[in-house]
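Hello K.,

You asked for the raw outputs rather than the summary table, so here they are, unedited. I folded two proteins back to back in the same session to keep the settings identical. This is the first:
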Amino acid sequence: MNRDLVAQMPCAPILQALGITAPPLLETAVSNVVARRGAEYLLALGASEYLGGSAFNAARITALLNDDQALDLAFFGIAGTLGEAVPHRDALDSWAVDTSGVMVSPIAPAACLAMVEAQGRTLLTASGANSAVADWLRRDMAGLAASIARCDIIHVTSYLDPEAPALIARLLERARERNPQLIVSLDPGMGWVGPGGIGLRQLLAQTDILHLNSEELTLLRGGAEPALIGTAMRPGWLIVARTHDGVTLHSAGEPFKRKLPSSPVPADFRVTDATGAGDTFCGAFLWSYCRDAAQPLEAAALGFSLARHKVSMAGPLVLTDAVRREIAAHKLEKSW
């Protein structure tokens, strides 16, 4: 759960002003001190501030779609404190998401500085309250495993702490000992795909549904067929590979490969803010998948549509008339 500062401007002059060396259009970990200084600088330049973080963004979308509360939603994570408030936890509570699995930290939420330009976005991310993740997982492993075991599906996103992947893999293993039917959805992001390592392999071994963008898929597959990734996952695996033009599903079953019709970005389409687009996709996909697991391509279609709406607007997805029509059409199709 992050505090996102989004600036619609090139990254180069901002990196120079902050004295930071970071590759453009990628995510780089920075210290909390640098993040605070960067946040002040971006806010002075007119940057927008939002509650964010991959898991939080996905939960936001799932809760937004779950207006009939047909699904019981819960969140597990660390919520930072700002002044006297715990804004992420309070937002989840207001969306009818169970927050009994949320640990409140006196430390401020992690800060993510996003500089958005035509070619993409550059992210500078600090740990903030999330720096306690390893200690939290070790200390509360048994209780968290018992709570997660009561779920049908859990969606996992990355932390900066290099110890997190292996600890989360162990947590999922213990939860599955209690509930062998637990489905694990993983969006590792470049933060985990890039370094790779044994922790990621242990996580993949617990994963049923793997979400990857085109860059992550290319890096993880290493030139091989996606089925090679599937061999590292659980039986019945599903890889959801998304691009700017569409979505392809690679699965262990038949047909092995399914995809949405290619939908290139229209020439007059303006990308305003891509921050959280992948999370919007995941939240919508999971909401639809939970309602009908036999139709993952329909779930991908809704996720792709809402993600494209998201990149056309600043900040989190807003329920415009066009978005409402998209959701209503999907719900109508599901009812049949």
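The second followed immediately with the same parameters:
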Amino acid sequence: DIFQAVKIPVIGCGGVQSGRDAIEMMMAGARAVQVGTGIYYRGKDVFKLICQEIKEFTQEENIESLDEIIGIIHQNYQARNYVIRHS
């Protein structure tokens, strides 16, 4: 909702532990994602792990730039289904 209401970059916060969590926040409109919870559960290597998981996702889905998925859930039915299936 915030993504559609403002014209400034949105930062996704809360509960990010994996690349999938970060991707879902980006699909919802976040241009940046805060990681805190992930440090607690996965340790200090969480940043490297999240980056690797995002890289794997982009390769599997043939995504060349993360800009392609920023806010896509607001305009793409298939993206909404992806988030629902993986939640």
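Residues 24 and 83 are 6 Å apart (CA to CA).

Happy to rerun anything if the numbers look odd on your end.

Regards,
P.
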